[in-house]
Design goal:
about 280 residues, alpha/beta, 7 strands, about 15% strand
Length: about 280
């Protein structure tokens, strides 16, 4: 049989020449994603956060990886700040190729404990900010006549979550729905939108949360011993998946919601009750 002349080529998983915006990029998962983008060959990365000193420090450190790294200070609860993120990145880099909505609030509260103020606070950062950032990026991409890739960091809590994460879980469910809706709406513009439902991950924020809750110092070791694979996820593992979704290797992938965890949704058998 003759070889097909139109046989597909192997697509690169690298980000050579691409310019990416990463929210929450000054710490934890967002910082790991920004670093992974640089290591994958991205030409430029704009990291977004509230702490200017920390953000500039991260930008300086990751800039040694050979990637143009910029920091923009923003309160993602502000529409003006969200719009400024995209306009600033465009001014610096001249173009954009991708957006990672990694920033998010994880404040706790059951149905009865959750105030309207807390509800609105979580929705402002976890849902409204990704909406505004996506809208502004898409407007820019269309004006540039090019496609792009958007990755939303959701959570396994989007499937329902625990009682003490009622509002948080609801925001992640909304983010998943927005991912699907935007993926469908933006196909003709060749803008891809995917999401990752991340599982329990060992971040600095998670450790600080456990300390505030008064967990015993050995909580980390005790929990990991109970997990199927013997440990929590690491930020770098999720960052690797993010760079794959940003790359040309996933040119035909949009509207996908990936459960990235060692526990399988809809199954039972684990006595561990993690808070995602």
């Amino acid at each position: 049989m003759a070889e097909r002349s139109d046989a597909p080529r192997l697509r690169s998983t690298r980000l050579d020449g691409k310019a990416i915006v990463v929210t929450g990029g000054t710490q934890g998962l967002g910082e790991a994603i920004a670093g992974a983008c640089a290591e994958a060959g991205a030409r430029a990365v704009c990291i977004v956060g509230r702490d200017r000193a920390r953000g500039e420090n991260v930008a300086d450190r990751l800039g040694t990886l050979g990637c143009e790294m910029k920091f923009v200070s923003a309160d993602l609860a502000s529409e003006a700040d969200c719009c400024n993120v995209i306009s600033s990145a465009l001014e610096w880099f001249g173009t954009l190729d991708g957006l990672v909505n990694a920033a998010g609030l994880t404040d706790r509260g059951t149905l009865e404990e959750t105030t309207v103020e807390l509800w609105d606070k979580l929705f402002a950062v976890n849902v409204r900010a990704p909406f505004i950032l996506t809208r502004e990026l898409v407007r820019a991409l269309k004006s540039l006549g090019k496609g792009g890739s958007i990755v939303n960091i959701s959570s396994r809590a989007s499937h329902g979550g625990m009682p003490i994460t009622m509002a948080y879980s609801t925001t992640k469910g909304a983010l998943v729905t927005m991912t699907k809706n935007n993926a469908n709406a933006l196909r003709a513009a060749r803008v891809r939108v995917n999401a990752i439902n991340m599982g329990w991950t060992d971040t600095t924020g998670e450790r600080r949360l456990r300390e505030r809750e008064g967990q015993a110092p050995d909580w980390f070791k005790r929990v990991q011993a109970q997990l199927p694979f013997g440990r929590l996820l690491e930020p770098e593992e999720i960052a690797t998946l993010v760079t794959y979704l940003l790359s040309d290797a996933t040119q035909m992938m949009t509207g996908s919601i990936i459960d990235f965890d060692q526990n399988v949704v809809g199954t039972y058998g684990s006595d561990v009750q993690p808070i995602y």
